[in-house]
UniProtKB/TrEMBL annotation:
It comes from the Bacteria. InterPro entries: 3_dmu_93_MTrfase, Glyas_Bleomycin-R_OHBP_Dase, PhnB-like. It holds the Pfam family 3-dmu-9_3-mt. Residues 6-131 form the PhnB-like domain. Gene3D superfamilies: 3.30.720.100, 3.30.720.110. This is 3-demethylubiquinone-9 3-methyltransferase (Glyoxalase superfamily).
Length: 135
């Protein structure tokens, strides 16, 4: 039997833009907060002031993020996305507009037969979001 303290948390790895990303995400969702954040100091290994580790929550869901000080040959991929079930069409439209700005449209807002309205974007940081409005 699994331990009661065991948790699974979405973990996002950025390369220098973690704080910018989490601040942006927190501006979009209700019930958003930084739970904990630590930054690299002058002694590294990451660039001073960048995020060594942060925990934040959006709409009650916890996330973790870091700024990797190692350059990687990979980034985010739409094969893993954050799926947001929106309560209203206005909320879906607002989120879509904010997330697609300086990002990439994967599926424009529309009705695709499986819900009332749907859109899929990669945001300006490369994180993939699916936004859905049930019938």
């Amino acid at each position: 039997m699994a331990s009661m303290s065991q948790k699974i948390t979405t973990f996002l790895m950025f390369e220098g833009r973690a704080e910018e990303a989490l601040t942006f995400y927190m501006s979009l969702f209700d019930d958003a907060e930084i739970v904990d954040i630590s930054r690299y100091g002058g002694d590294g290994p990451g660039a001073e002031g960048t995020v060594e580790r942060a925990t934040f929550s959006l709409a009650g869901q916890r996330f973790m993020c870091i700024d990797s000080y190692v350059n990687h040959a990979f980034g985010f991929t739409p094969a893993v996305s954050l799926f947001v079930e929106c309560d209203t069409e206005a909320e879906l439209d607002r989120l879509y507009g904010a997330l697609v700005e300086k990002g990439q449209e994967l599926m424009p807002l529309g009705s695709y037969g499986f819900s009332a309205k749907f859109g899929w974007v990669n945001d300006r940081f490369g994180v993939s979001w699916q936004l859905n409005l049930q019938e």
